[in-house]
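Service request form, structural biology core

Requester: graduate student, group of Dr. S.
Request type: structure prediction, single chain
Budget code: on file
Notes: please return the result as structure tokens.

Sequence provided:
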Amino acid sequence: MAVREETCVRVVLFDDMRGSTALKERLARRSDEEAFHDLRREHDDLVREMVERDGGGEVLKSTGDGVIVVFSRPSIAVERAIEIQERLHEHPHLRVRIGIDMGEVKLRWDGDRPTDVFGLHVDMAARALELASDGHICVTRPVYTDAFSWVTKKKIAWKEHGPHRVKAGDPPLDVFEPYNANLTKPLRKLRGDKVVTGARRRAAPAKAAPAAPAGDVAVIRPWEAVARDGREFAARGAGVMYWFRVPLGGISYPEGFRSFLQPALENDRITKIRFVLDASHEPIRRVWDELVLPLVEEWGGGRPAASSSGDRGRLEVADGKSLAWVFVDLSREFSPCFKLLVSDLDLDEDTESEAQVFLSTAARTVWLRDGTEQAIRVPDAVLRIRPGTNESLLNALNAVANQWDSLFT
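Core staff response, request fulfilled:
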């Protein structure tokens, strides 16, 4: 058969068996070395079955302890990687780690079958593999960016680990971890070294500043920092979360949904999520109906569809957790856009109040289902208010929330 090479864009996946050398020695002591090779063949057959089903991807070759795979679509690569980890979750011996990158590579063909792949993105996938621990998956930002919008949100969650490198001198990889939240938790720390960007190093003072009081107000910007703070606000908070006149651009994009609303949905200590939305601004209602609610319903995995009557609606997103919304005319309301956490009065647990007040927003354009173009706004600066010395400000925001609270009962 003719051997040829071609340049193309592919998703490259590396898979590696856990501690294969130690496993080989242990099985050889217990039985014989052939027992390890039986296990290796079981692994190879399982991976090939998962990867090549319905033409999803192709196993190129074995690395001895794993395989190299290529896909055409990053969403399929992530979904099949999750399936592999699901199948091996309770296996008595087999554990694998997986690394994925994508980009332009050189693909070698023997006749009509690809047999090898070369290039920088092959190296990046191998480094992503080295950052992962057994039972986990690490992907680079290009894979995450393309896959996130297409993979099903019913069981695949994501954790952003940030820039990491395997060893000094390597270029940093911006790493994300997809995982099945019903089976496992993401890694708290990757195997490599966390990279502090040059901008952060330059901004750091020569001497460590004294710790700020817990109640200090902090101004946070730009959008990336606001998104990180939004995740932390939702992931660590508790009680009832109010969203008052918040620009929906911050959550309607898949990226924004992941940063702002999904962590609140996944946080068991947040029992109710309540939106007060501006009925005087028509694009808000359309963005809510056509972009935000479908993301929430998809995340909920087919729970009862949202029930609504007029300007009010409710969705049971999980056992003991609800998301509700009201549309009211806020054209003459002078209160700022904000998010607020307060204690749930239906429960015995007292929780601390905290808030994010939106200081400024940047305009973005979205396309709705009917093909029309709408301008929405995403937050690029917020005032973060923590409990302590700012109780009066938190009480003022709580009073605004109470003004509309009866509409949710």
